[in-house]
Design a protein that fits this description.
108 residues; alpha/beta; Transcription Regulator spoIIAA; four-stranded mixed β-sheet; 3 helices; 35% helix; globular
Length: 108
């Protein structure tokens, strides 16, 4: 499961302590690759459709009423253009009633 598989939800987890539902995107692409931003946009849109269509609740009905977080785990530090994209995406996702968090997992 990767950012290149836009129709696949990579991971769904529930934080038992907070009750938050985490939908994680695994992003292994460098931000310098020209296809990165369109792929990420497609993946984020797929996640929003998954949530808003009710598919999330069909797959995990126990999460009804819980806050939903889209968690983007990046292998590489976002470029300046990537940072701008992520700020805009965060605003859009928050307007939809969810949250976007970005984690940076640098390779060893």
């Amino acid at each position: 499961m990767t950012i290149e598989q836009s129709s696949v939800i990579d991971f769904i987890t529930v934080d038992e302590a907070s009750g938050e539902v985490w939908l994680t995107i695994s992003d292994h692409l460098p931000w310098t690759e020209s296809t990165h931003l369109p792929l990420l946009q497609d993946k984020l849109n797929a996640y929003l459709r998954f949530i808003e269509s009710g598919e999330l609740l069909k797959k995990t009905p126990q999460v009804a009423g819980h806050p939903v977080i889209i968690n983007l785990v990046c292998k590489f530090k976002p470029s300046e253009q990537g940072e701008l994209f992520l700020r805009k995406a965060t605003t859009t996702i928050q307007k939809a009633g969810f949250d976007l968090r970005v984690e940076l997992k640098l390779p060893n």
